[in-house]
Amino acid sequence: MKSMVFGATGFTGREVVRQLAESGHQVVAHVRPGSSSLERWQSTFQDWGAGVDTSEWDDQSIAAAVANHRPELVFSLLGTTRKRAKAEGLEAGSAYQRIDYGLTAMAIRAAAAVEPKPLFVYLSSIGVKDGVKNRYLAARARAEAELRNSGLPFVIARPSFITGNRDESRPGETIAAAVGNSLLALAGAFGARRTRDRYRSMDNRQLAAALLAAAIDPEQHGRVLAGDDLQALIAAS
User: Fold this and answer.
1) Which of 25, 69, 137, 196 is a plausible cystine mate for 20, CB 3.0–4.6 Å?
2) pTM, to two decimals
3) Domain assignments of the chain as residue spans, ordered by start
């Protein structure tokens, strides 16, 4: 099975690439050609047995890349943060629309243009819903709508906090995840296991394993997977 991963150098994306390659998939990791870490990631991915695509982020180039590679699975694990947007001189709201929505939509259009159509696995976020006001979540809600209307078979994942050793520090998320997990453990002890599992944090390895499990399980296709669904896939994998 051949997979293409957009957002491959991100915290979850790199682990998806590693696990795909380790499980014997033919995998192509997309890396932005202007990335300051391009050579490092090319070397890392190739060491793992993955191919690397460095197509520019524009509709024509991404469409050509997907048409050339003909993946059966496309993973979209793209996103930015307020801190990163500020470092690049961007306003957060516009960065979310340009990256979290815009690049995801570009990948969706490219995948929808090929036959047979690949399964599109989109990493969204807990809290996404119609009419949400938060700009980060609104961009992801827009991407979800684009995917649903694309005609592609899909899986949408909405995890809670994703923990682990990132390239950038996120102390707020780390503290929130730790406090939240403690409260959720207490809730689980009193019988609220579904609530515990829906909101409990997971690390990038667990999330990647859940995404891969969902991708190869036809029963998960066409579903929006909340945290408890992802935790069940992790437990079963």
Assistant:
1) 25
2) 0.86
3) 2-168+202-227
